[in-house]
From TrEMBL:
EC number, as in UniProt: 1.1.1.30
Keyword rRNA processing: no
Species lineage: Bacteria, Pseudomonadati, Pseudomonadota, Alphaproteobacteria, Rhodobacterales
Native source organism of the sequence: Parasedimentitalea marina
KW Transferase (keyword) present: no
Record protein name field: 3-hydroxybutyrate dehydrogenase
Length: 257
């Protein structure tokens, strides 16, 4: 599993799954480039504390993944990019005929277009280095659908499709490209959905979690950010060198139903 000496760029990594992925990659020895669209003292302190905890180098680079040029500049500013984890993502829930256009545009820009831009910028760097791993954090919603999540479902299906196409384009390079499809993970993104769902169904928090969210997951458990991080670390390992163009579901059986 050693990723010693590799540099991992993880988009949207000051929270949730991205942070869990960054931690597990650092545990395997990778140097980190953390990212989000904010730039606070805490963002830089986070990079410092991960560097100290795992004895790797780590820096934080602000870049807004809704802006194509900033996606490409992130890869340039990283200085190296052996591992690219496209994780940044947002969600909005509304019927399609009431879906605000600016929310549609933001979801498509951050969840889908950013993957195009960062990957396009990273592949030449990986080819020059003679090694590379692209891991896209898609979703169970990249393989199935839910009502009122049209933009998110469209973007995540797009990511799954792009993953396969990039895998074929890089099949004869020492580069792999895969997607990880989480079910529900209790991160700030999911926490933000709970109050609306409570109001919509007139349910308390525990009932929303049990009857709406975990009802889709046969395991009846949330996946954890550590489990997602471990899955990404595996896809970056030498054991996974021939795994490319796949989607790896971490969803407690959701997509097996
Ligand atoms: P989160 O809200 O905790 O993290 C999202 C991250 O993206 C944050 O670091 C945030 O700062 C960053 N981000 C948002 N907009 C950005 C922008 N414009 N530029 C740069 N960074 C930006 O959510 P999460 O649940 O950890 O989500 C991470 C990824 O996992 C997303 O792509 C999401 O779609 C996917 N996912 C999450 C779940 C889940 O249940 N939590 C399930 C399936 C897929």
């Amino acid at each position: 599993m050693s990723l010693q000496g590799k540099t991992a760029v993880v988009t949207g990594s000051n929270s949730g799954i991205g942070l869990g992925v960054a931690r597990e990659l650092a545990r395997a020895g990778a140097n980190l480039v953390l990212n989000s669209f904010t730039e606070t003292d805490e963002d830089h302190a986070l990079a410092k504390s991960l560097a100290a905890e795992f004895d790797v180098s780590a820096k934080y680079i602000k870049a807004d993944m809704s802006i194509g040029q900033e996606c490409r500049d992130l890869i340039k500013a990283a200085g190296a990019c052996d591992i690219l984890v496209n994780n940044a993502g947002i969600q909005h829930v509304a019927p399609i005929d009431e879906f605000p256009l600016e929310k549609w545009d933001a979801i498509i820009a951050i969840n889908l277009n950013s993957v195009f831009h960062t990957t396009a910028a990273a592949l030449p760097v990986m080819r020059a280095a003679g090694w590379g791993r692209v891991v896209n954090i898609a979703s169970a919603h990249g393989l199935t659908a839910s009502p009122f999540k049209s933009a998110y479902v469209a973007a995540k299906h797009g990511v799954v499709g792009m993953t396969k196409s990039v895998a074929l384009e890089t099949a004869q390079d020492p580069i792999t490209c895969n997607a990880v499809c989480p079910g529900y993970v209790l991160t700030p993104l999911v926490e933000a959905q709970i109050p609306n769902t409570m109001a919509e169904y007139d349910m308390d928090r525990e009932t929303v979690i049990r009857e709406v969210m975990l009802a889709r997951q046969p395991s009846k458990e949330f996946a954890t950010v550590e489990q997602l991080g471990g899955t990404v670390a595996f896809l970056c390992s030498s054991a996974a060198a021939q795994i490319t163009g796949t989607t790896l579901s971490v969803d407690g059986g959701w997509t097996a139903l």
